[in-house]
Amino acid sequence: MDRGEHGIAEEMLRAVSSYRGIRKNLSLIVDVLHALTGKPCSAFLLSTRESLVCWEHSKGWKADEGPSLRLTPYRLDAVEMRMFEGWETRGGSLRLLRSLDDEISLVLRLKTGGALDDASAVRDIVDGVLPAVIGYYRREKNKRERAEDRQAEHIAKTVGGLGDKRKAMRLLAAAVCKSTEAERAAILGYSDREEALWVIAAYGRMKESPSFSRPIRLGEGVAGWCLLNRKTANLADARSDPRYIKGAYDDIRTMLCVPVLEEGRPRGAICAVNRIWPYSGISPGFKLADQRFLEKLSRETTTLFRSV
C-alpha cells in the first residue's frame, strides 16, 4: 500500500457514513481493498441458520464480478463456520467472519497468494470500519422491527373492527401470507370441548387435503405441537420433521407456525407455508423477522380467536 493505513481507514469511514444499506457499505469495502492490494476480494452475507449465501460482492476473481442476490450453499463447512469468528489465514486467503445478529453473518475474503505483507494493515482498516457498518445495520434492523410492530398492531385493529368474524379471519390469513412472503397461510381455531384445532380460514394456493377438513388434536402435527407446548415452530424442511402429519400436503417445504394464547390458554394457531424466494430454485426457511412478526400478531389478535 502506498498510503497510510490510518488515513485510508478514516477515508473509508467517511464514505461509510454516507451510506445506509449494509450491502453498499460492504461493496465499498471490497472495492477499496481490491484497489489498494490488487488482490481478489469478496464479501458475503451468510444466512447463519441455513449456511446459505444470500448476497455477494466480488472484485478480481475469474468468476462474474459485482453485487449479486442469490441463495447458494456456502463453500465452507457450516460446523467449522459456527466454531470460528474473527480473522484467520487459510488456503491462500485472509478471511473474516463476523456475526451481525442471530440470523446473518458477514464473511470477508481476500486472496493472499501466500504471505501478504499488507495483511495486518488490511485487518486494521477493516476492524476500524466494521463498527460503523454493523452499527448502521443494527439501527436499521431496530427501525424495521418497530415498523413491523406497528404493522402488526394495524392489522389486528383492522381485522378486529370487522363485524363478520369469518371475513376477518380470511383477511388475517391474507395479511400473514403477504407480510411473510409465504405461498399460503392458514388460520386455525381451537375448540376447548373437543381439544382440537380446525382450519377456519386460508389464503394462497391452499389445495384440499385429508387434514384440511378434519380436526387436528392437541399435540398432533406441527400446529398441535405448537399449541400444546406454547412454542413456535420455524421449519426449514417441514416434511422431514417428525411432527409433520405425513400425507397432509405433498408440496410443503418450509413452515412457520405460532400458537395463539390468551393468558396461557390455547386459542388457535397461525401458520405460513413455503416462503417465496424468486432468485433461485432453493426454498429458504422463514426469517427470524417473520417469526417475530407472527408472534407479535398472534398476541395482538388473541381476542379475535374467542368463540371461533
Report mean pLDDT, rounded to a whole number. Answer: 78
Q: Biggest β-sheet, characterized?
A: 7 strands, antiparallel
C-alpha termini separation: 69 Å
Portion of residues in helices? Answer: 25-40%
Q: Which architecture name of the largest domain does CATH use?
A: 2-Layer Sandwich
CATH topology of the largest domain: Beta-Lactamase
Beta-strand percent range: 25-35%
The CATH C-level class name of the largest domain? Alpha Beta
What is the rounded Rg?
23 Å
Coarse morphology: elongated
For the record, what is the CATH homologous superfamily label of the largest domain?
GAF domain
Count every helix, treating DSSP H or I runs of 4 or more residues as helices.
7
Low-confidence stretches are 207-211
Task: Tag the structure with descriptive keywords.
Beta-Lactamase, seven-stranded antiparallel β-sheet, 2 domains, 308 residues, alpha+beta
